[in-house]
Fold this protein.
Amino acid sequence: MGKLRQATSCFLIKDNKVLLAMKKRGFGVGKWNGPGGKPNSGESIEETAVRETLEEIGVTIKSFDRVATLDFFFPADLAKKDWNQQVCVYLVTDWEGEPVETEEMKPAWFKYEEIPYKDMWVDDIYWLPQVLQGKKLKGTFSFTPDESLQDFEVIEI
């Protein structure tokens, strides 16, 4: 297996709330997630996080902290082999602008205890609460053809 495709996911944090955004099109449509995506040619993963957050929810990141590196593996059937990726997760506590809905995502704030895990990727429950508690993680997740979780490992680093 070659190098995993890189991607980002950013979670804005304020007053014990996290900003999630409902994906309106493309990969992950219908799921709550953090804004993020794939790098453009020549773009660092950090630059990707800043650009994608601006494009998807209209805010400019001023500072952030990388809190997790998560590897995702999907079965080769159903063309999902292109979904294999390594996601760099960032918590954002300093930004400019107010989150707004775009063609891509519809943002909303959630108290930590009210995060809608049932409407997110099935793996999120296994790592997001930990990073919101201040832990830094590395994880590996394998999925079945129906996007159920087949196997996973999450370790604190």
